[in-house]
Records
---
Amino acid sequence: MSEERAGKARRSRGETVEVELVPDDGEGGPGTPAAVDGHRTGGRRWPAWWGRLSRRTQAVVGAAAVAVVLVPLGTVAALDSAADRERAARMPGLPGGVADLSVAPEPGWEVATDEGVLSVLPDGGILTRAGTDVLALDAATGAERWRHELGMLAECGPAGGAVEAGDPVVCLAGPPDDRTVTVLGVDGAVLGTRGLGAVESAGTQVPGVGSVAGYDGERFRWSLPSVWPAADGALVVLDPGEGMVQAADADEARRALAALRPDDLPELRVVDARSGEVRGAATPSLRTTADLAGCQDSVAGWLVDLEQPYTWVSGGLASMSVCGTPTVLTTGGEQVDGVPAPVTGRTWSLDDGLVVATETGATVVRGGEDGNVDLPGVPLPVLADVDPSDVVVAVAPDGSVVGAAPDGTGRWTASLDADAWSRQQLARAGGTTVMTGADGDLVGLDLATGQERWRRDDVLPTDEETDQRVVGALTDGRTVVLGVRRADGYDLVALDAVSGRTVWESGHDGRPLADLRAVDGHVVAVLQDRSPSVRVGGDGEPGVATSDTVLRGLATG
């Protein structure tokens, strides 16, 4: 081959990669002795040696040199790729986790229903309702897995949460004066039914049910037991107490309560939904001034409401509060001890516990072996959480944001210059917690130190945009996607968790966004024009909660 042709061939290959193996005069090469006292030794030996080699030998040596350069780079790329695959594989099992959000998801399947997501079923199932039927949809395709007709005013639970593997679905249906509980397997098989008689539930507490025969009059409704479908195949029952106790001071209130019969107090019970067997029961403690502190009224003196105590059911706990002091049972029926009296009667619910505000922070009540934990602030729920950090982010009594270990030990404190109770923790990813800050700002805090990584004031809706708000969040561990509702549709905004920069934006006109969530790694949007209302017909026509609601699957990259 002539030198001209060889040069052209080298230039052609050099358009992709150019590797110069022959050093300039005076420069060393592979194996050149190191410089001694600033002077290079044997500087001319390498080119002379190289020139004596045949072209074939030069090609072999050159390929080996390129391999030495490229193998480490390829190893790094392979490690990055393996890390990406590992990260994507674990996303579906985490709250709000999606494998890849690097590009905007596109609308996929759609199913019209009368509810949003009632519960999340194992293996990527969505429990929802259409008319008098409860049905399960596949989150990946929208395909119907099974359907079961329940009847009028149907509802199912555990509401808003996830049905654990092996647990059943508990549903209620029928007129308020003759409700029935139906227990279903996650495959739709009927495991049992049982009549409950006249009870109150979420499905009956909507406009229109007053027209049902035999169910008129608020007084009658207040005297009925209230029931909630719960986890572990349980039904939570609240039997209301009798009337109210009014007193001029705490001593008079204690004497009046001591004179009551046990049946006059409200009772919280956990029963097996299928059999009706009572797993556990409790009445409120109203013996001390601390027990009654939340019932002090500036006008009426001391006013203890025994008829309608605040009751909360979530996860594996059920709580009844009288005067703000909660009485807590697990869905297994065990009473949780050591629950403190809250400051100003404030309690919050988390997915896995009850939060009771105290003077120094909060106590998280979880029950079972986990026990109670005292934190230096009220922990903030998070919509999407895939970060392995064990830091609990909370709002302290002075309004600062604190990071604490799971055992309650404080780690850091940060000030975001905003109303303490207006903050929201949207997502945790990439060692960052993305939170709402002051005046509609969006803030990224380092989870390890609490230091502010970034702040944006051009992402969240302004105060004037009252029809807009963040209703959901997703993350793939790097990108955080916020679902922003507006009156004529919704927007999806993707931010880099670490830097806060905008990755992409996507607008969708039509129905407003009511919820945005990940189900087994699949993105599901709930679009809803109006709140549910109940139509109760005559001549045996069933009552149906109706709503212009659509479940939409969004396909990701």
Note: The chain is about 15% helix and 40% strand.
---
Amino acid sequence: MSLFRRPDQIQPPPSSLTLRWLTVGVLLTQALHAFHLPMSLATVGPILALLSYAMHRRGWRLPSLVLVLIAATVAFAVRKELGYLIGRDPGVAFLALAAGIKLMEVRTRRDVSFLLCLIAFLLPTVFFYGHAIATTLAVIGVAVVLLGALVATRDDEAPTPWRAALRLAGTLALHGLPVALALFVLFPRLSGPLWTLTSERVGRTGLSERMDPGMVSKLSLSDDIAFRVDFEGEVPAARDLYWRGPVLTQFDGRGWSTSLAPGEGHVLVEQGRSISYRVSLEPHDRFWLFALDLAASVPPEARLTREQQLFSLQPVSQALQYRQTSILSDRYPARHADELRQALSLPYSGNRRAREWAAALRQESTNPGDLVDRVLGTFRREAFYYTLEPPEYAQDGIDAFLFDQRRGFCEHYAGAFAFLMRAAGIPARVVTGYQGGEMSPVGGYMIVRQADAHAWVEVWIDNLWRRIDPTGAVAPERIERGLGAALPAGERVPFLSRLDDSVIKTLRLHWDAVNYRWQRWVVEFNKERQQHMWKSLGMPRPQPWQIVAVMLAVAGIWLALLAAWMFRHRQRDPAQSDWDKFCRRLARAGLPRAEHEAPLAYVRRAARRWPKAREALLAVAQSYCQARYGPIPARAGLKALHDAMNTFARVPIR
């Protein structure tokens, strides 16, 4: 009947050392996921893990029903925080918290193995949310700790000390690193990620398909990177750095939004200054790409709308790199007649004073260009203020902005200007994107941050869409020198947008250069780049057997080198090494040891030759025998042998 006993009756419970390793593994894994979890869930996970460890220390056991209720409560909390339960993000969040619950019911070796496997499964899910080098190093570090846990907990009766376990785990990881690198470079890459899950988060920082008053100003408080740019040749002047994003044509009385108008765009072919560059775009979970005005090429898997906006065919949920060519121009012709009709649409009522002023300007102006100059002149002459802290504009916000408060950010000036143009019968629309950028002092590339978010206007003048930036009339420093130079003294400025070069800012720029190189050479090592590598090696289209042969050759060479190194540096018994050193000294003095001679017999023969060294000689031999064969602890025996050797080294023998 013993065959039918429960596993926890057969196996002893895990030791306290095993429980400590498991708790540390769970806490480290939860810490990795804390950066993308809501604060409440990120706090609950460690509490569950620490509570589980405390329960084990006190010998408390919860009934299975209670554990099920705790798991159900956690699932309900995930559903409440994220809004849904079935999906990637809630699944990862639930598993991260469930690891703490599983720790509560660890009773057998099977439970230990299951929990370690759960932690190992959770580690790669961190890459759903970022691929920075710091994230990779953190995951590798936790993986080494997990491997150390496997080493330390393999035998509860003779546990491995934590330092030795981590040392062995680190050594194994270093031994496997070259093979992992070879597989990363040589194994056939897929055209997309192995998982096809798209991002489900809605809170990522970035431009939206809608612009409400205050939206861009809030975005400009962020130092997060939107994209990086490598220019092929001379870098354009700051006044030409308009990175085109969503084009907003619909106005509902408060904010502006995009309209999915049918019709494909046409690549600009007119004469102008052409510039080529490579964009490394950070994920923003939407479809738009960014290019300097105006796009002269379309990246693969993208299209150009009739508003000259680049659209990806898939949401940009992972870092994306593409090459782009642009014509530096602030005007282009319209291709569709209904573009102008859309660019004149306004609500039937609202903002009465702005409508009346627009009608008066139209009467006074000789042409659309003259009307534009009159409005810009008003912005320059009168007391309008550029600020990141504008007041709240509610009903008839454009009237309140133009005639009462006169304080706003770029979206206020662009939205009010486009409204005035439309009210005066001139087609106009708002363009959002980024303006400017900062050249990295170490990487030679440009960094465009969320703080560079901007809004400007396109106006139909002389049968062309022309870029008009009303912000430049109020705060020209914003266009020429960036956000930090345009804001009034005392206002809150994003740290990396400040004009002063602090040590922390310099260090962050250097770290960004490291991250960028990691992004380019590791994260963005895709199928096309691998094919280019094979082509440079003389194999444009390698056959499967050739790829396997190269991988086996690389792995074989590394294993051979590793075996040779281990054979040369094989670990010897420390006591035997000291004894061999002792014997060599006596041999140089004219008394070599015979192969059959025991340590004590050899020392007695040496004592007869050097009577004055008798005590030192006997101390070495006795210490060696105790360290090598005696019952005393190894560390104490080795110390006694080292002390005896040091004493003998000061004894003259000839």
Note: The chain has four domains: 16-186, 210-347+426-497, 528-533+544-571, 574-649.
